[in-house]
């Protein structure tokens, strides 16, 4: 199974946690028409990675951040797919109960908001489930 990889730079080291900064580009960065459509974007992302030997890395080192596809799909499921399903199902349920569209919309947004609050509460467990790896380039 292929891994997802991004080139990054070590920004800080705090105990066994190495913070890396990477430039993540959208899929259309390589498109030849990107200057015409204006949809391409790239943003700096910061990721904290637990490492066994922090002395192996130094600030400014170029590293490769890797994550397995399965873990990447798990992250996509938590961040995008489950909230969408919750939004849609709560919207349809409240509309089926003959509530007004405004109440249905606010209720659906509230359900998704509660979901993200729940994710925030269990973020420590998620950090143990979704593991990034570093290797020097």
Low-confidence stretches: none
Average per-residue pLDDT, rounded, comes to 85
Number of domains: 1
**In what range is the share of β-strand residues?**
25-35%
- Which series of helices and strands comes N to C? EEHEEHHHE
Radius of gyration: 20 Å
Basic shape: elongated
DSSP helix fraction: 40-55%
Tell me the major beta sheet.
Answer: 5 strands, antiparallel
Widest sheet: strand ordering: 3-2-1-4-5
- Tell me the number of helical segments per DSSP (H or I, 4 or more residues long): 4
Count of β-strands:
5
C-alpha termini separation: 21 Å
Overview of this structure, please?
- The protein is of the alpha+beta class and 137 residues long.
- The protein has one domain.
- It is 44% helix and 30% strand.
- The protein is built from four helices and five strands.
- It has helices at residues 34-37, 69-96, 101-121, 123-129, and strands at residues 3-14, 17-25, 42-50, 62-68, 133-136.
- A five-stranded antiparallel beta sheet has the order 3-2-1-4-5.
- α2 packs antiparallel against α3.
- It is elongated and about 60 Å long.
- The protein starts with a strand and ends with a strand.
- The mean pLDDT is 85.
Topology readout:
Layout: E1 3-14, E2 17-25, H1 34-37, E3 42-50, E4 62-68, H2 69-96, H3 101-121, H4 123-129, E5 133-136
Short description:
The protein has 137 residues and is of the alpha+beta class.
Give short descriptive properties of this protein.
single chain, 137 residues, alpha+beta, 5-stranded antiparallel sheet
């Amino acid at each position: 199974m292929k891994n997802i990889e991004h080139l990054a730079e070590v920004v800080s080291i705090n105990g066994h946690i190495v913070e890396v900064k990477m430039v993540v580009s959208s899929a259309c960065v390589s498109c030849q028409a990107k200057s015409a459509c204006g949809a391409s974007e790239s943003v700096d992302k910061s990721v904290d990675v637990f490492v066994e030997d922090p002395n192996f890395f130094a600030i400014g080192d170029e590293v490769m951040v890797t994550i397995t596809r399965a873990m990447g799909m798990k992250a996509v499921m938590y961040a995008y797919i489950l909230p969408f399903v919750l939004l849609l199902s709560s919207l349809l349920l409240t509309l089926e109960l003959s509530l007004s569209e405004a109440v249905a919309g606010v209720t659906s947004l509230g359900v998704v908001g509660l979901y993200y609050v729940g994710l925030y509460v269990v973020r420590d467990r998620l950090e143990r489930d979704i593991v990034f790896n570093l290797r020097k380039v």
